[in-house]
Amino acid sequence: MTIENLKLFTSNYSYIFFDLDDTIYPISDYDKGAFKNICNKLFSASNIEIGYEWLLNNKYGILGDRLFLNFLKHFHLPLDLENVCTKMYQSYNCDTLSKNNSLYQFVYDLKKQGKFLFLLTNGNYKRQERKIQALGLSEIFDGIAIGDPQVSNDLMKPNIDIAKHFGINTNKNKCLMIGDNEYIDGGFARNVKIDFVKFKFPI
């Protein structure tokens, strides 16, 4: 679905839930900056690009489940650096994220139309919060729920309690969930019995 089609699709809804990663913005923007920082720390200047390309190419492959451990094994680096890599990834300052490469203007326009907007994202709380701040989203959304599995599952999609957290009666209001993941985002929509549209931010 294109952004133009999404504009038409949202016109009939008063309450709209958005996913963050790969919906509001492309997560590859985050990965590129975080991976480059990791490689800058671990490699000499001549090998930074090699390590960087390996991480980008393998994040979603068969080695992605333990990406940093497999990365260290591949380049014969000490395996006890896995925790260091993970911490660096989680703490990246989001310099590569930009409002201009996101749905910021689209969401801002929806807010001006009087829509009620809510942002739902799963992941490390501090990491997701930095993304939200970098993209200027906290000033637009009426409510934000960050479901951190290390803290609690209460606000993690597809948990039905998220709608209750915001005090929204999904039976009485015309609601829509927009996200890139049919199982997580679509699962939330099915659980609370609202409409769902799959949308992945153009890269």
Summarize this structure as a short list of keywords or feature phrases.
elongated, Rossmann fold, alpha/beta, 41% helix, 12% strand, 2 domains, 203 residues, five-stranded parallel beta sheet, 5 strands
Please tell me about this protein's structure.
By secondary structure, this protein is an alpha/beta fold. It folds into 2 domains: 3-25 and 98-198, Rossmann fold (3-Layer(aba) Sandwich), CATH 3.40.50; 28-90. It has helices at 3-9, 27-42, 48-58, 67-74, 82-90, 104-112, 125-134, 161-165, 185-192; strands at 15-18, 116-122, 143-147, 175-179, 195-198. The relative contact order is 0.19.
Short description:
With 203 residues, this protein is an alpha/beta fold.
Query: What's the Cα radius of gyration?
Result: 18 Å
Report how far the terminal alpha carbons are from each other. Answer: 13 Å
Largest sheet: 5 strands, parallel
Number of domains: 2
Q: Please give the share of residues in helix.
A: 40-55%
Structural class: alpha/beta
Q: What is the N-to-C succession of helices and strands?
A: HEHHHHHEHEHEHE
What's the helix and strand layout?
Elements: H1 3-9, E1 15-18, H2 27-42, H3 48-58, H4 67-74, H5 82-90, H6 104-112, E2 116-122, H7 125-134, E3 143-147, H8 161-165, E4 175-179, H9 185-192, E5 195-198
Parallel strand pairs: 1-2, 1-4, 2-3, 4-5
Helix pairs in contact: 2-3, 2-5
